[in-house]
Amino acid sequence: MDNTILGRPYPRLGRIRAAHLWGLIWGGMGLVLALVVYAPTEWPATAGVLMMTQAFAVAVMWPRLRASQQAVLPDFLTIFLLFQTINKSLTLLNLLVRAAGVEDVRTIAIGFDFLTDLPNFYRWQAEWVFLAGTVFFTLGWLLIERRRPLFVWIEPSPRFLWHGFFASIGLYILLNKLGLAPAVGMLSGLLKLFAIGALAVLLGGKSHYGLGRKKSWLPILALLPLYYLSLQSGVKGEFALISMPILLPIFRRLTPPRLLGLSGFLAVVVLVVFPISQEARKANWESYRGSENLDTIELLARVENRWAFDGVFTTAVDSSTKWLARGASADIGGLVMQIADQDGHIGAFLIKDLLYIFIPRFLWPGKPRFMPGAWFTWYLGGASSPEAASSATAMMLPTEMYWMYGWVGVVVGMILLGLLYAWCWKMLIKLSTSSLIGLLALFAYVIRAGNLESTHSLYAIAEPITFLVYIFGLNWMVQFVSPRWIRLTVRRP
What we know:
This protein has helices at residues 13-37, 43-67, 76-99, 120-145, 158-177, 181-184, 186-204, 217-233, 236-252, 256-287, 296-310, 312-327, 329-343, 372-379, 397-432, 436-446, 457-481, 483-486; strands at 4-5, 8-9, 108-109, 115-116, 155-156, 490-491. The protein is an all-alpha fold.
């Protein structure tokens, strides 16, 4: 049997068996909690389903993550399963904090002051849907992969990565300053992902800019403007996205210094980022009532006022519990399951715009804007119309598919998405062997894996296809204008 991944050996068989054994034990305990010891109306039953999702994700992900240590980046599936493990751990923490009686986590914080009680039964149902979604997406991916994980082995020269970063971030800022970002559609977001992806490979590579090496502070410093912009939005997913270039190298090779650095990073998140995110979300909901939006400096001033009035610790605890309430998949997905139970399935309503979402906005200036999150905020009564909604509410990909078509939608939809994402990944791998655009595209594509579960189904289907079209079009355009620039020196393992 071939015991290599693209010519590189698998980790030792004992480690693979250890991951599978751990998954079997942890998942078995979860199964007993979910179906035998506790009723679906009790929170430990939901915790049991979360444990099964963790067990499956770790059993598949850990050997792949170990095998990718000498690569520049692991593949999309590995990162997706890694963040599933993290997300389900946070949701488990949410359940534990709620069980301890913390009031802010006993309800779902859809908006700043829009709270809805939710029976535990719907959380239990939602996590079964998420478990199925994770399993069937993985199955779809593996059908394309055929036991040969396609990690990113080619490392571009740092000089050209910096060129790619400054060109991408400069054009991104320019388009936004000129108000042209909506007109160019996905290209604006793609430029931001290029910039983040270039920093991700600098920190994850073998050059002097790799995390823990003497020049690693430079790409970390380059992330600060992106952090600044993300804090103003109050969207936790944006902050997580920008943090991935730092987090990925840490998770791939945990060492005592990196664990210490991770602890410091988490302390900053809890003490500063969560309070700013909470104030930004509050400001966004106030803007619906006529108040003005606040920039990051003003948001920080509000946090400082809270520190002075309530204390740093109390502020951190309060904002963290509210973040847990908003970020727990069991809460958000459970709400959708409750609505599906009360209102019934809605068919293809949430993906009805799929046929014309691929038309570029510069060809159709009046093309409607696709705002499923804003629509859901309106549906819940948080805005007078989808256009008036100043805050988006996630429906979570698997539970959104369940709301449309029930269990058939979850099984068929997630398998098809796994096939689609794996096929697009293989196409990008092929392009990356001869083009810097292809390499940057890989890094831009892979960092989206962390928030796939919270993506709306319309975008989950359309984005990989649109992404591929943009990349090949951009590659052709740059090759036509400057063929020497696109064929740049790379560092091969």
